[in-house]
Model the fold of this input.
Amino acid sequence: MSSRIPLPYAPRVLELFQNPQNLGRMEDATVYAVAGSPACGDMIAFYLKLDEPNALIIKSSFESYGCASNIAAASQLTIMIEKKSLEEAWKITWSDVSEALGGLPSVKTHCGSLAVGALRRAIRTYYKEKELKLPTWLPEELSKDEKHALEEEALAEKLAKKYKLLEKRD
Amino acid sequence: MSNIEGLLKQHGKPDKEVYLDWENGSLVDKEVYAEMRPYYLERTFGNPAITHHMGWETLDFYMKAKTKIAKPLNIDPQSLALTHSFSESNNLAIKGIAKMNKKRKKIIVSEAEHLSVIHTAKSMFGEQYKVEIIPVSNDGTVNLDILQERIDDETLLVSLQTINHEIGTIQPVKEALEIVKDKDDSILFHTDATSAFGRIPLDYGKVEVDLATINSNRILGPKGIAGLYVKDGIKIKAIYEGQLSLEILSPDVENPALLAGFSKAAEIQFNRFEEIKNHTQNLRDKLLYGLQTSIGRTEINGPSGERRAPDNVNISYLGCEGEALTVECSMNGIYVSSGSACTSRVLMPSHILTAIGRKPEEAHGSLLMKINRLNTEEQINYVLERMPKIIKRIRNITGGIEL
Done:
């Protein structure tokens, strides 16, 4: 085993792990996005069903290949953005998610960040796919959480190469 | 702020509990505890290096107790140093040898060693040591051809484990030792037998390794005590300072209660060796092949048949992340560990699973279960009944994410 660290999850993390809200692929999603990498061992798929004229989130759902806190963070975020406008959803940060979960262990803060990264990627994808003008609240430059998702994906590739994982893949 | 009480409350106490995480911590056998108790409360707690009746009593006890541990290894009790943990034994074997032998500057270890060996070897970089890491095959067996190539007149020490702690590979220690000693008799050979002591026969009178690490807690003895066999005539030095007593390689105040437990555990384990081996091996086969046949998209990690440790079950469940699996198992009262990155400090999967060529998604979905003599067939049946549901639920959370 690798070096271990105690992970005293908050009760809310376990609660959402036991009974995740808004879990599963959404067949009629307006837009979806995936963040993370199998090399890092955590990925989140985020689905949004939008009331497009009003830029409102009607419902959202997720799938997670990840640890308990990853699952809980994604689920918590779907609850937090329910019936919210895209602008409101965009403004939710990883620390908001972490706080709503009762705090994530420091080594797991990236789980909150990855969930937010996946949501923001979905929002950005929506504007790109529909070729809509970017609203003023949506910066052209990638936000911190999106960058985090990208960095994690890049890091995973790099580590995978370092440990010769990719060479051994078929 | 963590709220561990709240976490435990949310988790709830499962109706049925099956402990299979023997790799990461064991209880003390009842008989072993009964043997230890009087050494805490009344008997021979004196320091064996002091000249009074109680000290000599302890000294007498020490010699007899060490004999019980040494006998099944076919070694002289005097050559068994007691330490506080197998990690300390592994550190001592490497650093203690290096301290006494300054001329040669190369240490060879395998890629699948325990981190207490790999990290200790790498920590020697700072002292201008060269560390060679020998690759292993896809079942975890150390590559002897490469070992032969890498040993040279610079080589001080070769450290190869006897049984891999994670995937149960029984290593060809005898063959490796012959290769090393044929090349140069003065190269020292250490084996970390932590996962092997009490599991397979070890005869250091015949397989003449220079140093071997053995452990108490893995055979249901107490934590806080382990051993390092140091063959007569090998030069080694303590790696920390203290007041010298009996154990000059681990200078401290001796703890007779721990030794009483360690020696009793060894006595039980070796008196019932065949029975324990058959029991664990039968349950292992039932669990290993039962899981493999009842659950789709699985990969067994490590060898099959005689070259697999009698207590080891390690399977990757594709489409599952291992930390989530351990938590879901826990909800079902099944306590196991995973080689997933998410369970680790560095967020990298188990170095052993990557060493045997597992893809990241295979390593992340691995679960390690160990069978102990205390496990029952009824417990294994329970695990076999629950695991398909556990895997199904976690795969459902992964959903359609393409790995």
User: Anything to note?
Assistant: Helices of chain A lie at 11-18, 68-80, 86-90, 94-100, 109-129, 144-162.
